[in-house]
Amino acid sequence: YSPSLTNLLNTMAPSLSPLRSHHVAVIGAGAAGLVAARELRREGHSVVVFERQKQVGGTWIYTDHVEPDPLSVDPTRPVVHSSVYATLRTNLPRECMGYRDFPFVVRSGGDQRRFPSHGEVLAYLQEFAKEFKIEEVIRFETAVERVAPATEGGSGKWRVESTETEKRVRRDEVYDAVVVCNGHYIEPRLAEIPGISSWPGKEMHSHNYRTPEPFKDQVVVLIGNSASAVDISRDIAGHAKEVHVAGRSNPADTYIKQPGYINLWMHSMIERVNKDGSVVFQNGQTILVDVIMHCTGYKYHFPFLETNGSVTVDDNRVGPLYKHVFPPELAPWLSFIGIPWQVVPFPLFELQSKWIAGVLSGRIMLPSKDDMMEDIKSLYATLEAQGIQKRYTHRMGIAQFEYNDWLASQCGCSETEQWRKEMYLTTGVRKKAHPETYRDEWEDHHLVSQAYQDFSFYTLTCNM
Ligand code: FAD
């Protein structure tokens, strides 16, 4: 991610050209849309945020409601946005998780824990929106239905069609630019299971999981190795008769009883399911099962977006996107925030937002279309050479910090704090080794102290 000379010169000499202000539509008022709105306004753009829910917070707005189709495959189903379940606590420590200049510190009367509940994250996002007066530019209960180029000739402008659900008001407007922040945890991916069409049990996706009580005395199989499979299996184990977790990446002979539990087992992947209700694992075990829960992640989905093929989703690769943000053909007038995964999301959203805002104003220059395409092709070639499948294009893990630092260099900001990087890595190791206790026992006290030293700058200036 080394910056080109042009980019470097432009970030170093921002005052040479007058800044331009644009009329920008932001789709979504979750963690990405909120910080996008703040950065765009800071840069002098006029902003309208479209949000189909009644409040800010996106996926952090917990609801008891689930979708009527437990697998969430019916395209006509009423969408319930949140995937958060009742007992969910963050899987990142709050110091690491918050935006860089609006630390996620404890509030009086709030959840004081380092890995707090979903409600505390929602409260934090609400405070962020309040502090930066973002609600005044949000149109709540307004769903974006169509985003398409405003003219065929390619003026760069976008037509945004939306419906305000309560009042049934339809709007058709033109914006200079659109920033897509619609989240990517609502359109489930499902595991392929031989024999599933005649299996008589119940199937669901973790998107529709809320509480463990309905699983009382049942035999449940969860598919997945991700954070949700780890957490939900333990949540359910307190109520279900048996819980079995099948992981595609587990060796074929995996069959391990989870220490500390009398009814929780790890398996290799499911080999097939049968008409009699049984599930056969690759390890040879056969079990009669009531429920299969797919904890198999989600697909990127932009049902409102029409780009004439300039942006596609192919095996969960959204592309082509320069640095996971700008489609070269439509840059900078269309951009995406929040595509990378296996990251610390909020600070990454913040840097992507600063970059987009600066590029739109002309303070930061993008390379030419051809150079952006070359960069994308070289990323794809590297992934291919490493044998990494398309669907992992946006998975970053440790590479996120190099990416963040590249964004920071474009924007003239400081790099990711050393303590944040170390905290992310330390937490990852502890999470793997101690999934039951990592949220309540830790050893990185020195990193917490360093974080709070940094935070004192922001908490003091915020309060002035
Ligand atoms: P969202 O929060 O999904 O917000 C998108 C918004 O766009 C929503 O409000 C939605 O209503 C709106 N929208 C969508 N389509 C339209 C439309 N057509 N018109 C109008 N509005 C629209 N991250 C962490 O940092 N720590 C964690 O511990 C953590 N745990 C997680 C646990 C779960 C179960 C899940 C699903 C995610 C977790 N994450 C965690 C990741 C989390 O998704 C991000 O932190 C972040 O909240 C994503 O923000 P977003 O704005 O991209 O998307």
UniProtKB/TrEMBL annotation:
Keyword line: FAD, Flavoprotein, Monooxygenase, NADP, Oxidoreductase
This protein's record includes keyword NADP: yes
One MF annotation (Gene Ontology) recorded for this entry: NADP binding
Pfam families assigned to the protein according to its UniProt record, in alphabetical order: FMO-like
Gene3D superfamilies hit by this protein: FAD/NAD(P)-binding domain
Family stated for the protein in its record: Belongs to the FMO family.
Protein name (record): Flavin-containing monooxygenase
Organism: Brassica campestris (Field mustard)
